[in-house]
Design goal:
It is built from 14 helices and seven strands. It is of the alpha/beta class and 330 residues long. It has a single domain, classed as Rossmann fold. The strands form two sheets. A five-stranded parallel β-sheet has the order 2-3-1-4-7. A hairpin with a 5-residue loop joins strand 5 and strand 6. Helix 2 packs antiparallel against helix 3. The protein starts with 23 loop residues before the first strand and ends in a 5-residue tail after the last helix.
Amino acid sequence: MIESPRTEEPAFRFARQCDISLPLVFIDGITRCGKSALSKVVPSLTRMEHIQFAEELELIVSGLSLGGLRKDYAAAFLRSHLNQKSYNLHISRNVNFRPGDQTAVINYRNPEIYQERLTLEEGPENVERCRASDHYLPMQTHDLMANISLIQDLEINFRILSLWRNPVENIYSWWSRGWGVRFNNRDSTNFSLLIEDAEGNAYPWYVAGYHRQTLGMNAPEKCIAVACDMIERCIAGYRLKAEKDRTLLLFFEDICIDPDREVGRICDFLNVEKTEFTAPALRDARLPREIIQADLDMKIAAFREAVRPDIFDRLMQFQHAYLDTRYGLA
């Protein structure tokens, strides 16, 4: 077989298909900021499909941010992927029926919809169903605000609910869930993209550039260093890059104290309404919930005991900035 000659620059670009995908609602924030609670509530609103994760999108973003992907390929891939996801959703193909999973359709406000779709024919009629739908597809995502300019450049039809939380509570949850250890191993149930250095040490992709600095840190120190860096990047992403008309800032403590008001803000932002399923969804998410100062004090004391003074001081600076002005965002 005669191989075609290869050149440095291909003589083509990847092309996007016509768009038949549902508009997306990203429920976004750093890990353990309260997205799971909010993801129980948003699908209870009108015009919402059931909640899904966005692994493919997150892998594309990580590849773009590190220079490992061409932008035209990323845009073409996502258009094809989201078209297929919308097409399959309208005939209940590849939907999740595991009752214990957050993304299971049995946990949707009206799971019968997906049972009924099983009887629908695929083909041109289903394409028209996709085009005619006025529904949103809510997706739980991680850290998109840090790379929001990349998302916007991919010409995706989306709105983003950007969720923030007291960094002490947020980062303590990282520590207690073992993320300080899982950062530097190859745990096959940690589905984040990994990078490695010349010695074969593994790191999550988002610490590229300062990854080796984390090697000398203990578990809670890594959690603080990495989370604070990601928070800084998300703040900069919102301030400098985010299209504000597509972004709604939400703060977990506000949702805990007055969830009805915050859900109302979400409804206004997305032009949707509460349903009879919203109140049960709030109860299932344990909202409202009390914020106990003694618990916060205990977590601060645990960090003070476990980490170096300079790293502890950085955490306290972030907490003061959050409590005083919500990082200057609100």
